[in-house]
Amino acid sequence: MLDFKNVSLKHGTKTILTNVNLVVAPRKITTIIGPNGSGKTTMLKLLSQTLQPDQGRIVFADEKVAYLEQNNELFEPLTVTELLEIGLTNEVPDSEFMYRIIQRLGLVEMADQLVDELSGGQQQRVWLAYALCQRPDVILLDEPTAALDVHYQVELLNVLQEIQTEYNLTVVMVLHDLNQALHFSDFVWLVRGNGYVDRKTAQQCYDAELLSSVFQTPVQIIEIAGKRQVIVELS
Ligand SMILES: Nc1ncnc2c1ncn2[C@@H]1O[C@H](COP(=O)(O)OP(=O)(O)OP(=O)(O)O)[C@@H](O)[C@H]1O
C-alpha cells in the first residue's frame, strides 16, 4: 500500500498539491504527466519520503521502495558490475538476477567499463539496472528515458514492462512523451500545476480535450494502423 492521504504541499508560495488523495495501484504501472514545473518530481519525492508534505501523509505498508532520480552521480569510480553489486548487497546477493538485468538492459558489453566513461544514455540504463538490482517492490523513476535515443526509449520501456510483469513490481514514473505514457501505463496521474491531480486509466487519457486542457496546447487523437496516437498540433 502506498497512498497520498489528504496531502498538501507548497514550495514557497507556489501551491503544488491541495488535499490530494491518490492510491498507487499495486503491481501496476502508473505514469505521472503534466506541464513543466507542475509538481511531478515533487510527487515522486513525497512517495520516496525524501520530502515530507505540509499537511496529510503518505501511507506505507512495508514495501521496499527504490527511487531513481533524474540525475544520478557516483562518488567514486566504479564499473557497471561494481555499481550493480552495491545494489544487490542489501538483499541476499543474487548475481544470477543481476546478470539477467545486465542482459535485458543491453549492458553486457560494458559490464566492466567505468560508469563515468559511458554515454549519458548508457548511464541511464545502468542506473535503471542499479534500481532493479535492489529488488524493490516499488520503483519510482523520474524521466527514465530522458537521455535515450528513440530506439532505447522504446526498448527500455518494453524491458521495464516485462520486468514489472515478471516480478509484480509497482512502478510509478514520470514521462514527457504522451504516447509512451499512455501506451506503457495502466494508470496516469495528470498533474495540472494548480494543486489538483486527476487519476485516470491510460485508456481514458486518449481524450484530446483532456490532454489539451492539461497542457494548454491543442492535441488530437488519431488512429494509425489500428492504434490511437496523440498528436500535438504545431502552429
Ligand atoms: N526545493 C524547492 N524549493 C522551492 N521550489 C521548488 C523546490 N523544488 C521544486 N520547486 C518548485 O516547485 C515546482 C514543481 O517542481 P517539480 O520539479 O516537482 O516540477 P516537475 O513537474 O517535475 O517539472 P519538470 O517537468 O520541469 O521536471 C516548480 O515550480 C519548482 O520550481
From TrEMBL:
Keywords: ATP-binding, Nucleotide-binding, Transport. It comes from the Bacteria. Pfam families: ABC_tran. InterPro entries: AAA+_ATPase, ABC_transporter-like_ATP-bd, Metal_Ion_Import_ABC, P-loop_NTPase. The keyword Cell membrane does not apply. Residues 2-218 form the ABC transporter domain. SMART domains: AAA. The keyword ATP-binding applies. One of its GO terms (molecular function) is ATP binding. Belongs to the ABC transporter superfamily. PANTHER family: METAL TRANSPORT SYSTEM ATP-BINDING PROTEIN TM_0124-RELATED, MOLYBDATE IMPORT ATP-BINDING PROTEIN MOLC. This is ABC transporter ATP-binding protein.
